[in-house]
Amino acid sequence: MTRKLSLFLMLLVLGSGPASAAEVRIFAAASLTDALGEICALYGREHPDVKFVRNFAGSGTLAKQILAGAPADLFISAHPKWMETLGGEGRMAPESAGVLAENTLVFVGPPATTATSLEDLPKLERIALGSPNSVPAGEYARQALTAAGLYDALLEKGRLVFAQDVRQALIYADRGEVDGAFVYRTDARLARRARVLFEVPPSLHDPVAYPLGLTVEGAKNPAATAFRDYLKSNAAKEVLRTYGFETD
Amino acid sequence: MMMTLTPQDIDAIWLSARVAVTATLFALPFGFAVAYLLVYSRLPGKLFFDGLVNLPLVLPPVVVGYLLLLALGEQGWLGSLLKPLGIRIIFTWKAAVLASMVVGFPLMVRAIRLGMEEIDGRLIQASRTLGAHWYDTLFTVILPLSGRGILAGATLMFARSLGEFGATIIVAGNIPGVTQTIPLAIYDYTNTPGGDRLALGLCLVSILLALAVLMGNEGLLRRFGSRRRP
After folding, report:
1. What ipTM was predicted for this assembly?
2. Which residues of A lie inside 8 Å of B (Cβ-Cβ)?
3. Which of A156, A161, A178 minimises the CB distance to B174?
4. Does residue B173 sit at the A interface (CB-CB below 8 Å)?
5. Which residues of chain B make contact with A160, given a CB cutoff of 8 A?
6. CA distance linking residue B142 with residue B99, whole number of Å
7. What predicted TM-score, i.e. pTM, was given to this entire model?
């Protein structure tokens, strides 16, 4: 009995299994969770030997993890800034840059909320947005609120609830825990109760673009370069469009 | 390395202190009552009760936070009861207090209980034979003699509250100036490329605070001890 148990414990500690021959480690913005999941599933049907390791979070969080040495092949950011951060640190393969898709920033709220523009937001009690320091959707929202002259006052009054990624902001609004949240149009589609109240004027913030790139490590991984090419294919773009992303 | 604290950090430090003090003060009477029940009562199912009280000690704080959120949220059974009264708990600093109270409670009960178990049983018997009611014994014998335990329990709980993260971030959210305590502010920085210096500044504050609490506790306990046992 004890021997069996110790054997089991040993296996548990040591047995991480043999490394898969073809593994693609993707670090992607949280807003891509569902679309990328479907693309990976599609790709996996044609390439059953490829194993995906996916890590979804706020793009800044991911950039920080990669900087700290997290193993990643492919990075898809919801803001060019984090791609540039990694590029500046020499983590990205130089020739690999490109834009996967584009998106739109909207404001969603539970049925009880009535707001039709940014100017109505000071009337709300709690507004969720991704933490602007690490979540692109939050950074775009801060940009727009600052341009409208509202950000500092809202922050000072403690009205802004910072979420760790855009999906958390969406869930806050969907469960009615906040009066509204800044999310992407693609996220808003997933809400059960919350609905889009208005589109944030795109002139108030940088365009929402998803640059993708291979890391220095990823550029040496044939499975990763192949999947990067697949992401630019029409089949992948089709999936992105069904989720509401804009592609060229 | 230069240590930098932004105004937001100062807010976080004050908020942490406020949350920890409030949670500790509110939990004290309950902690004392529960410890008393566990030591002196002959409740049926005491073992189960004991387990229940200690549960938050071993449960992932995320579980505690999530259950609190479900109960206190807009559609939760408690939340919907409180809503007509105009009381809103989640995403306010009250939620941070509540999360700290639940997570720190077992530590407090443990320490008070240890203190009570050290009390000489003959003192309690003597008070009873002299005609004291249970409440007389409680307030004139047990309460003063478990002072050390209460102090130790309050300190532990205070320190635990200063560090509460998992339950707090779920039920109170991360609102600068309202619910962003020190650990939440540090978490925010650790997610930010280039945030290391700011994170380290707050880490240092955390370490200094924790050390101060522990040393203060030790000093107080000694004074207490020397007065009781000359």
Report:
1. 0.70
2. 58, 60-61, 63-64, 67, 82, 85, 126, 128, 131, 133-134, 155-156, 158, 160-164, 172, 175-178
3. A161
4. yes
5. 175-176
6. 29
7. 0.80
